[in-house]
Amino acid sequence: MICTTVKQGVDCPFMAAGGCSYNGGICCEIVEQCKGCKRSVQYLNAWYCSTCPEPVVKWKNGNCNMASHVLVAKKETAKINPLKASKRSRK
Cα 76 vs. chain centroid, distance in angstroms? Predict the structure, then answer.
C-alpha cells in the first residue's frame, strides 16, 4: 500500500488499511553509519532508509547487510587435503 505518514506516495510493506502497522506507526531516521549509502532517501527534510524502517536495528550487531557503502573483505583460503598435509609433516 502507499505510505501516508513519512514517505508519502511510496509503496510501503508496513502500510495497512488502518494506517502504518510498524512499531510506533512511523519510520525512524537513518543513523550516522548509514550516511553515504545509496539506499538513503530524503523525505520532508530528513533522511530515511528505503529498505528498513528502523536502521538502528540493522547496525546493532555489526554492519548492515543492506549497506551499499560498506565493503566486506573476503578471505581466500586454499583448501588443503588433510592426507597430503599429514604426509608432508612427516618429512
Answer: 25
Contact residues for 59 (Cβ-Cβ < 8 A; gap 6+): 31, 33, 34
Q: pTM surpassing 0.85?
A: no
Place of cell 547487510: 65
Q: Judging by beta carbons within 10 Å of its beta carbon (0-12, 13-18, 19+), is residue 87 exposed, middle or buried?
A: exposed
Looking from the CA of 48 toward its CB, the CA atoms found within 13 Å total 19
Q: What is the pLDDT of residues 10-20, one digit of tens each?
A: 788 778 888 78
Place of cell 583460503: 77
- 30-44 mean pLDDT: 88
